[in-house]
Amino acid sequence: MFFKNWWPFRRKLKNQAKKDDSFDVNQRIYTPVSQLTVGMYVIELDRPWLESPFLFQGFELETEADIRAVKDVCQYVYIDATRKRKRPVQAKTTQDSLLSESNIDFGAPPPPKLSVFEKEFARAEHVHKEVEQLVSNFMERIANGEGIDTKAAKEAVAQCVNSILHSPDAFLWLNQLKNKDKYTAQHSLNVCALAIVLGRYLNFSVANLNNVGLCGMMHDMGKMLVPLDILNKPGKLEPEELAIMRSHAALGYELLKSSDQMYPGAIDTAYSHHETLDGKGYPRRIGERGISLFTRIVTIVDMYDAITSDRVYQKGRTHLEATNILANMAGSQLDERLVIKFIECLGVYPPGSIVMMTNGYIAIVVEVNELQKLRPKVIMLLDAQKQRIPETIVNLADMLLDEHGKVLTIKGIVKAQDYNIDIKKYYQQGVLQKGFANEKR
Fold first, then answer.
1. pLDDT value of residue 441
2. Is 24 helix (H, G, I), strand (E, B) or coil?
3. CA distances (Å), origin 258, targets 15, 212, 251, 264
4. Which one of 50, 224, 327, 437 is most buried, by most CB atoms within 10 A?
5. What is the pTM of this model?
6. In 3-state terms, the chain is what percent helix, strand and coil (to 5)?
């Protein structure tokens, strides 16, 4: 399957590279990078395009930053001094087109939620189910050698954005309903949702939320061109198997580039989401200056979801364990300010976390209180003797007292399996509906 699907994309890419109706006749001139100036058009590098951080094969140097980017990876290039555009370049004037880490206000408070968990959950549930099925269909089509319906993908991401703007907690709760047998499809949806949640927290426009969400949804599509016996292998991969697994970044790049009307940032993210700031990532080891803002976001949330998910070869770890791993990588491999903001936006006890209360009860976190993040809404599941009790929602921000007259609060996150809790089974049994029906006010 690997070669069956890989080579058609290679041929298609080469054929597309030969077509260029935007410029006049070609004249190839050797140019050391020290001689590059704004306005030159680069047509060839001193290395293969797929080993460079550049998304397009041929581009105009529009800014000094473009020149620096070329100097970072090349000693010389070939330019075409005779090429003149037949179509004018549209000025990049909007905030959306210029969005980068440098123009994010990291101190700004997040926007208010447009609704509450209880009111949004039914819609979020419907959207989550539909989009999960859509992503599964995408992956099945790719595995069969077909392409991606970009329009459908964009419409699905827009639905996720709308739901998350109303209540990020509802979508985050649904992200906990994981099935390791459907990991790849669910992971793509989870990364899409987490990227949107972080983008919302950073006050992205709706257009940018849609863009970063699409980057998240599309980031791992190349894995569908990797043989299943490697993708789902329960043990450690052999060196040659690891090389094939890692090829999913280049495969995803070529797949998305061949997709009609695909957002360029999603193509770049598919190629670069395993790159790290220290230049030790793969496949190109491009380092900090070659990694876009949206790719940095997807890299962080991709790692988080992978760490907290059950896989065929490992059990998922807790939120606290995952955030500790991200924090240790911040600054060297991951963007430090984005890691901090991601941890902030999820809170200490994100929706879906299994927690132990100070009175020994076990509960599931439902909705984060953005003004008092240590005091979310929770559903009580087990009593101090770990016996099941009628599900009841308690708002810890109300400072309720336990049976000993002490203010009830969370002691810490625990592992669901330690208490025989299957969150998916509780969900199927209507735990949320029962909890809200019995809510203590």
1. 60
2. coil
3. 11, 20, 11, 11
4. 224
5. 0.78
6. 50, 10, 40
pLDDT mean across residues, the chain: 84
Read off the pLDDT of residues 159-199 as tens digits, 9 standing for 90 and up: 999 999 999 999 999 988 877 667 778 999 999 999 999 99
- Position 339 scores a pLDDT of 96
In 3D, which of 250, 243, 282 has the Cα closest to residue 268? 250
- Cα distances from 359 to residues 95, 217, 367, 384, 390, in angstroms, run 50, 41, 20, 7, 17
Cα–chain center distance at 225:
20
279: left (phi over 0), alpha (psi -120 to 50) or beta: left
What tokens appear for 8 in the block?
A: 């058609």
State the Cα–Cα distance between residues 439 and 441, nearest whole angstrom.
6
**Confidence tier at 431 by pLDDT (50, 70, 90):** confident
H-assigned helices in 144-258: 150-166, 168-174, 183-201, 206-218, 228-231, 239-246, 248-257
Query: What value does the CA radius of gyration of the chain take, rounded to a whole number of Å?
Result: 24
Closest to 190 (Cα-Cα) out of 230, 265, 131? 131
293-308 vs 336-346: helix crossing angle, rounded to 10: 50
In contact, 4 and 145? CB cutoff 8 Å = yes
CB-neighbour burial class of residue 301 (10 A; exposed 0-12, middle 13-18, buried 19+): buried
With CA atoms as reference, report the closest residue to 199 among 371, 345, 323.
345
Which residues pair with residue 377 across a beta bridge? 367, 395
Instruction: Tell me the pLDDT tens digit for each residue of 63-96.
Output: 777 787 788 888 888 888 776 443 333 333 334 4
